[in-house]
Design goal:
By secondary structure, the chain is mainly α. It has 2 domains: 70 residues, no CATH class; 106 residues, no CATH class. It is 71% helix and 8% strand. It has a two-stranded antiparallel ribbon. Keywords: Coiled coil.
Length: 178
Amino acid sequence: KPVNNLKYNKKTDQEAGYSARIKATEGYNYDEHIINTTQITQDTNIELEETNIDIPSTSKFVNRKRKRINEPIRLSTLNFLEEKHMREEKINIKQLEIEEKKLELDRQKLLLETERFELEKKERLQKLDLEKREREQRLDIEKKEREEKLKLEAQKVEIAGQQQKLLQLMLEQLIKKS
């Protein structure tokens, strides 16, 4: 940050404006001049409190003086403004980079959530397919068992029918012999 170390003496606004107007009309070079010099003639009855203040070239005090005397902007002020602009630009670039990173993270988060959702969906479908296959196998097994039971019962009935026929034949033969 460019900062001008300016010596500042308190004078009345009227005196400061008057001296500045005189210097402006004389073509005074402000880049080489320290604002409100400490040289006071003996005729002056004003007591001045001399203080050293670091005033950046864009301070309100300097801007007021500049407006009052239509002083061109100093090179140090231009440098300060340029550096300020560059800092703001860097800050804006960093903010944009941060926002881009946030957007990238959000995009990655969405991708991960989508992948997780797809995996969960796939797992649910596989689980449903497995349950369906197990149910079908169980139904097939039950159906085969029922069919076998029906076949066995049919065979039993057939065997029982054959036995009954045999018994009837035997009875008929016994009746014939007797």
